[in-house]
Structures are given as C-alpha cells and as structure tokens.
Design brief:
Layout (H helix, E strand, L loop, with lengths): L1 H12 L8 H28 L2 H4 L1 H20 L14 H26 L4
Length: 120
C-alpha cells in the first residue's frame, strides 16, 4: 500500500517520492483523497443540473466512472511527473483499472448522490 501512495505522490514531486518514506505516503494519501473528493463534487454539481444522473444512477455512474478513467489516464497522468512504466500495461491490469473506476468510483458516487443529495 505504501508504494501506491508514493506512486501517487510522484505525480507531484517525481521520483524522489519513492525515497521519502512516510512524508510521501502522507502526500499521496492527501492527493488521492483530494482527487476523489473533486470527482465527487463534479458529479454532485452535474447532478444538480442534469437530474437524469440521479434518476438513472446505475447507468450514469458507470458512464461517469468511464469518463473519469479516460480523463485521468489519458489527460491528467501524462501531465504529471509519474514515472513511465518500463513496459506497456497488461490487458488484465487495464481491465482491472477500468472496472475499479466504473464500479468503485462512478457507480458508488452516483448511488450515494441519489440516496443522500437533497432533491433539486
């Protein structure tokens, strides 16, 4: 788990994140939660304007997770200092990443918004 958060921190501070220990782990945790909170706020704001996002929560959540995956992996990550992998991502790893964002991020956010966000 330590390496995951150091990898996240490396997006901001580069390779030195892997030698910093608990400081870079804490930075990675903070960045991770800031990103997750930002995507949640974005969905919340969109759901206030587009009521279909909460009426069709399951479908919109899965689509939103896919949008988050594409933006994070093909726009945001290339703009960071995250070290490039020495070899291409495997298909299994790519599928795992996509499924995690579809169901753990997109679907979860949309279902929580439908349940707890006040109606417009």
């Amino acid at each position: 788990m330590k390496m995951i958060f150091q990898y996240i921190a490396s997006g901001l501070i580069g390779m030195k994140a892997f030698g910093m220990g608990s400081e870079s782990v804490a930075l990675g945790v903070a960045i991770h939660y800031a990103i997750a909170t930002t995507w949640t706020v974005v969905f919340y704001l969109l759901s206030r304007k587009l009521m279909i996002l909460t009426r069709q929560a399951a479908i919109s959540g899965i689509v939103y997770g896919g949008v988050v995956y594409v933006i994070m992996n093909f726009i945001v990550l290339p703009l960071t200092s995250v070290p490039h992998a020495p070899r291409a991502m495997t298909l299994a790893s790519r599928i795992s990443g996509v499924l995690a964002l579809l169901f753990c991020i997109g679907l979860t956010i949309s279902l929580l918004m439908r349940e707890y966000a006040p109606p417009e």
